[in-house]
Amino acid sequence: MKSFKKRKKFIQTEAIVLKSFDFGDADRIFTILTSNNGIIRVVAKGVRKPKSRMGGHLDILSKVNAYISVGENLSNLSQVETIENYSVIKNDLSLISVGFYFLELTEKFSVENNPDSELYYHLSYTLDQIFQKKNELLMRWFEIKLLSFSGFLPDLYNCQISGNLLDEGDHLFSSVNGGLVDKKYSTETDSYILVDKNSIKAMRFLSKNNWPDVKSIKFKDQNLIKIKEVTKKYIQTITQSLINSEKFLSNVN
User: Which comes out higher in pLDDT, residue 107 or 50?
Assistant: First the structure.
């Protein structure tokens, strides 16, 4: 009786290189976010050799056209072409720190081999906006939209304890409960973050609007600082980890 080998699956996809590490003597494993297949980990064989044709295309923070042989445990990258290497970002320490922050956050909210084109295009679009130098606002918008796409958008309208619609005013944010809490519950725990009404309005606006509308609005610095406090703690609660690129981001900005 004849035996048949299972045919390998090949895919061609647009992808953004998120991170990499050396493997063996000359190979490297890359984590890439693809436009149609979610996060994939691929091995680029021989890429660390001086004469490798793929080496110049596979920098972290690059958009590429990738040809992948899909394996059961680890896929092989057979060919790659650069679409965008974001050289302007890479030549500016402040900009690259923002770019690395976006890459790390995206990876933490991605599921391997789970198609998520919305997440891919959110990252791709946001990387194209870094040049505008409104990066504090861009980071807050990116975070809130990322939470939304991933199913973790905090409830900014209803009290997470009583379930009641919140009145306009200052309230508390609970990262554990995933949203705002009426300020009358402030004595229950010291883990809540007090959020003023204008910062609440700003978060609601960011969650509902696309970047062209967001960047046209002048946000007060104190509101962006408060939103950062909220998103930082909430993201740490969800991922159960620190964001390593935050330290780099703080040191250069």
Answer: 107
Tell me the C-alpha distance between 156 and 138, whole Å: 20
pTM here is: 0.91
Q: What CA–CA distance (Å, rounded) separates 236 from 253?
A: 21
| Location of each CATH 1.20.1440.120 domain in the chain | 88-155+169-252
- Quick one: fold of 88-155+169-252? de novo design (two linked rop proteins) (1.20.1440)
Q: How far apart are CA 31 and CA 35, in angstroms?
A: 13
For residue 202, pLDDT beyond 60: yes
What per-residue confidence (pLDDT) applies to 59? 87
168 CB neighbour count, 10 Å cutoff: 8
Question: Residue 8: pLDDT band by 50, 70, 90 thresholds?
Answer: low
Retrieve residue 187's tokens: 């004595």
